[in-house]
Amino acid sequence: MRKLMTLLVALGLMGMLNIAYGQSTYSTSRASGTIMISGSGTYQTDLSQDLRASVWGINTDLALFLFPQFAAGIDLGYVKSMQESGDEDDPDVLEGVTMSLGPRVYFFFGGKKSELTPFIKGGANYLVNKTLYNDDELYRDESELGLVASAGLLLNLAKNVGLTVEAEYNFEKGTDAADIDTQQLLIKFGIRSFLGE
Fold first, then answer.
1. Partners of 172 in the beta sheet?
2. Which residues of 110-149 are buried (b: 16+ CB within 10 A; e: fewer)?
3. Band of the pLDDT at 168, cuts 50, 70, 90?
4. What domains are there in the chain, each with its CATH number?
5. What would the DSSP string read from start to end of 51-93?
6. pTM (2 d.p.)
7. 3-state DSSP call for residue 3?
8. How confident is the model at residue 16 (pLDDT cuts 50, 70, 90)?
9. How many CB atoms neighbour CB 157 within 10 A?
10. Which pLDDT score, from 0 to 100, does residue 163 have?
């Protein structure tokens, strides 16, 4: 897991370093062959002494523009929740881990020079859910399919880098009769960089 986190951080840093290649004009019409790297993260914690809990997650995706304004790629996500109970010095820890991997397609709107670029995104996820208690695995489910659709805005900070905000709809359908279908609406913030033109 540490190697995965190191890789995700390295990809994020690559996007940040890409700012150095930024120019004073914006180019939102991406040519075929341009590579897009994106990353977003969330963190939530409960500061109550009675409920010691936290949730954090990270998403990164890598895509290639097949046609101008249209890209296809893959998204990798990792979400971990943790809740402690009992003695603060030696607590019992309940953890939930969700890993996702799936294809994505993107379409960007807008002209050649625009500070704001709207986009839409869609795809599917293969999900792995695990529940652990004091590092012992209690439950594992690898048989869920998640569908994803989102709409967002890219704020171009420079020619090849920008910040994103998007509203994402997730639908997860269990394959067993006992599984519960779930729906989520998320607001995500992230950074997106483009390599090549």
1. 146, 182
2. beeebeebebebebbbebebbebeeeeeeeeeeebebebe
3. confident
4. 2-195 (2.40.160.20)
5. -EEEEEEEEEEEEEEEETTEEEEEEEEEEEEEEEES-SSS-EE
6. 0.69
7. helix
8. very low
9. 16
10. 92
